[in-house]
């Protein structure tokens, strides 16, 4: 059994099967819908969020876990004397990494190593799976951390949003920008750069044509990607579109694994339905 335990937060958007396969534990972030606060991934599903948001015209507020929850989460691994590596959502977007540091201090345990992924969604998941695979093979904390420092800036995370309504409701873009984009049927690409979200290309037309154009635009970069795995991560897209993109990636004949995951509550709260991204590590 590995003496290194890999843990992460619920914004990693990894499926239950992957978490189980690689023995990864997840600390949920908090999502507040009005007066009600629930734990991401445990107490609500994205469909509830979309329904509430459309009924109220608001976007849920998302927050880092409580210190108490973080302490309870770490405690079993601390009691087992394990080396713990935590991969958290970008510190530019959330205080989650700092909550883990404070929890480790409360537990008076110096074998908790906090990694700011500088990313979100399966941009974190790519780092987590790589680390978990190394841990399974018996790699040390230092070996895993050194490997992550080499590849972290090579993670390519981007996605195309169907509507800017949710980002606008959450205060992440102006009402004028959202109205203009929705009126012109623009589907912007959101990219993660140095831990922050920035706007990339803007696609026009329906979501299917926008997503297929977005993926084709990535071909040159995909041909130069690490061939271990690529993620298709979505917030509730038509199965036909997902399959077409999966087939396109398969036809490139690069990746050993093409993994399809559904975005969790936090990511879905901000991007809304019909968002999709292709995420990978560049060589």
UniProtKB/TrEMBL annotation:
InterPro entries: DegV, DegV_C, DegV_domain_contain. Pfam families: DegV. Keywords: Lipid-binding. One of its GO terms (molecular function) is lipid binding. This is DegV family protein. It comes from Herbinix luporum.
């Amino acid at each position: 059994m590995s003496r290194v335990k890999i843990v992460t937060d619920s914004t990693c958007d990894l499926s239950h099967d992957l978490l189980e396969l690689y023995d990864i534990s997840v600390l949920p972030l908090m999502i507040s819908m009005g007066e009600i606060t629930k734990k991401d991934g445990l107490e609500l599903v994205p469909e509830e969020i979309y329904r509430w948001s459309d009924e109220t015209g608001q976007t849920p507020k998302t927050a880092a876990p409580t210190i108490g929850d973080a302490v309870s989460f770490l405690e079993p691994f601390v009691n087992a004397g394990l080396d713990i590596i935590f991969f958290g959502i970008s510190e530019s977007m959330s205080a989650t990494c700092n909550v883990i540091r404070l929890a480790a201090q409360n537990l008076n345990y110096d074998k908790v190593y906090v990694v700011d992924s500088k990313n979100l969604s399966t941009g974190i998941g790519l780092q987590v799976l790589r680390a978990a695979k190394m841990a399974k093979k018996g790699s040390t904390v230092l070996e895993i951390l050194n490997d992550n420092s080499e590849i972290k800036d090579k993670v390519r995370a981007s996605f195309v949003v169907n509507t800017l309504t949710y980002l606008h409701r959450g205060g992440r873009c102006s009402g004028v920008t959202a109205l203009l984009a929705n009126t012109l049927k623009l589907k912007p690409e959101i990219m993660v750069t140095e831990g922050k979200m920035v706007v990339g290309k803007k696609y026009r037309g329906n979501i299917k044509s926008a997503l297929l154009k977005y993926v084709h635009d990535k071909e040159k970069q995909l041909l130069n990607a690490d061939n271990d795995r690529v993620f298709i991560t979505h917030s509730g897209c038509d199965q036909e579109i997902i399959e077409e993109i999966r087939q396109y990636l398969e036809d490139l004949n690069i990746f050993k694994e093409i993994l399809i995951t559904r975005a969790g509550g936090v990511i879905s709260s901000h991007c809304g339905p019909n968002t999709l991204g292709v995420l990978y590590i560049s060589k």
